[in-house]
Amino acid sequence: MQEVIPELVKNTDIVITSNYGIHQMFGLGVLGNRFSASAKLLMEKFPRIEKVVGKTRKSISASHQQIQGKMWDGEKYIKAKKLDITHVIDRVGTGNAYASGLIYGLLQYEKDDKQALNFATAVCALKHTVVGDVNMVLLDNVLSLMGGDTSGKIKR
């Protein structure tokens, strides 16, 4: 892995990973370190990187998860709002949902990384309520959750 991934990352602007991923794929940092510390090391090794993005998942139980997006932008550590998913149906595809939500969020909120993270976190949280690996949620539902509506009411 350390033979291939660094070569791919050297021309990358944004890396989505974890503290564990930085350690495993690049041999950087110490397991158990803070994400921002490992992200700093990654950016030092690969100066083209502008943002290192990850998420924290706390498993309360199989049906209750907490999700929070996080980012090191080279200057500051940014966290999204922590979201509780109390009725998890399926975790398959939640990482892909987070990544695609991040891409959309960064394009949509290009001057506001925190909003981009909040968008990605909301997309990921809602994917937990959908069976299968395709995230079949509506943009209005994501925006509603970002706005603080955690009622779970159906919007038509």
What would you note in describing this structure?
The chain has 156 residues and is of the alpha+beta class. The protein is 40% helix and 19% strand. It is built from six helices and five strands. The chain has helices at residues 5-9, 19-26, 35-45, 94-108, 113-127, 139-146, and strands at residues 14-16, 51-61, 64-72, 77-79, 83-85. Strands 1, 2, 3, 4 and 5 form a five-stranded mixed β-sheet that branches. Helix 2 (19-26) packs parallel to helix 3, helix 4 packs antiparallel against helix 5 and helix 5 crosses helix 6. The protein is globular. The termini are far apart. 32% of the residues are buried. The mean pLDDT is 94.
SSE order, one letter for each helix or strand: HEHHEEEEHHH
Strand-residue fraction?
A: 15-25%
Regions with little confidence, pLDDT below 50 for 5+ residues: none
Give the averaged pLDDT, no decimals: 94
Give the overall shape, derived from the CA principal axes: globular
Distance between the termini: 46 Å
Extended strand count = 5
Query: Rounded to an integer, what's the Rg over CA atoms?
Result: 16 Å
Structural class by sheet pairing and helices: alpha+beta
Largest sheet: 5 strands, mixed
SSE inventory with pairings:
Layout: H1 5-9, E1 14-16, H2 19-26, H3 35-45, E2 51-61, E3 64-72, E4 77-79, E5 83-85, H4 94-108, H5 113-127, H6 139-146
Parallel strand pairs: 1-2
Antiparallel strand pairs: 2-3, 3-4, 3-5
Helix pairs in contact: 2-3, 4-5, 5-6
Essential attributes:
156 residues, alpha+beta, 5-stranded mixed sheet, 5 strands, globular
